[in-house]
Amino acid sequence: MRDYVKSKDFHRHMRSLLVARFQELGWQSQAAGKCSFVQGRRVFWLQVSQYSNSLTGGKFTLNLSGGVGAAGDTRILRHLEEADRAIGKALEEHIIARLPRPVPDPDVEVVGDDGGPVMVKLGDLAKANPRQWDGPSDVWLPYFSKSDLDDWAAFLLPRLDRLTRPSTPEIIDPMTWARRFDHLTALFRRR
Predict the structure, then answer these.
(1) Considering Cα of 162, then 164, then 165, then 169, what sign does the dihedral take?
(2) pLDDT tens, 116-145?
(3) Is the sign of the CA dihedral 130, 134, 140, 142 positive or negative?
(4) What is the percentage of the chain residues whose pLDDT exceeds 70?
């Protein structure tokens, strides 16, 4: 029987899987207890769904906030490329198929693709939100055991550089824009 990973152990295990890659990318690990990293004013963290439990397992997503031009928290899995989405969907189906199921297969309430509650058989969890992997949408990654987390880490590690790369407004020095604006206003003052 596979053991369900509780939130505290989830963060500890995912931190151990991701910390080396984040350090390679120039991020620093934040305080113990959560899987989060910081780079300048930018913060990356994993968020576990409040609806996680030992019957249906858990779900988590990736968040990135901070930096110039960032508008609040950003779910970065929205930015997966189409090929990544196909791989992620296949991995999700594989992980859900491994969920331990009591007999008979129980009905469970989950959040459906419209945001409302949906009753589905435990074995049909992947069907509860079938458009999750259609881009761009809010993607939550299911897990039950540490082996599921290992699989998600293997999926995420080669994509972290692209997913956490600053957007153009964050790359450009704000002083550059101030100098450009001063130059432009000086042109109008001369007339």
Answers:
(1) positive
(2) 777 887 777 666 666 778 877 788 899 999
(3) positive
(4) 74
Report the mean per-residue pLDDT for the chain.
81
Of 160, 139, 146, 142, give the one whose Cα is nearest residue 12. Answer: 146
* Cα distances (angstroms) measured from residue 67 to each of 166, 175, 189: 8, 15, 33
3-class DSSP assignment, residue 172: coil
As a residue count, the chain comes to 191
78-82, 152-156, 163-167: segment of lowest average pLDDT: 163-167
For 149-184, b/e burial (b = at least 16 CB within 10 A) is bebbbebbeebbeebbebeeebeeeeeeeeeeeeee
Long-range contact pairs involving 106-113 (C-beta distance under 8 Å, separation at least 24) = 106/55, 108/55, 108/56, 110/51, 110/56, 111/51
Number of other CB atoms surrounding residue 28 within 10 Å: 11
Of the candidates 146, 150, 144, 100, the residue with the CA atom closest to the CA atom of residue 123: 100
Nearest to 16 by CA among 153, 133, 162: 153
Distance between CA 164 and CA 40 in Å, rounded?
13
